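Please, structure for the following, as tokens.
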Amino acid sequence: MKIIITESKRDRLVLNWLNKEFGDLTEVVRDDRTFYVDKDGLPLFYYNQDSKDGYVHINYNRIWVFFESIFGMDDLQTKDILTIWLEETYNLWGATPIQIQFNSYVISWRRPIK
């Protein structure tokens, strides 16, 4: 069954979901990166402290895929709603969310950051 809602209602629903699921992340500074991790220490997003590009690297599998499949949001809609959420919830003003996947030994979305 498909339910049709307005874009503003969808955005409020998405922001509420983000705050319920990820509104209490813990900030962890490691080397030149600031990570925001869940209660299990798994990172949801991070940014480079020394970078001036303003990019916030968002876990693709936990956020982008969910928004695409459940809410039918495209890349720009996802970036717009994440920008609002990062500003309102984590005071990251001027941040530009980008999706990223990791398969490196140094950073992994599946390994806790402590």
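The mean pLDDT is 87. Helices lie at 7-22, 60-71, 75-90.
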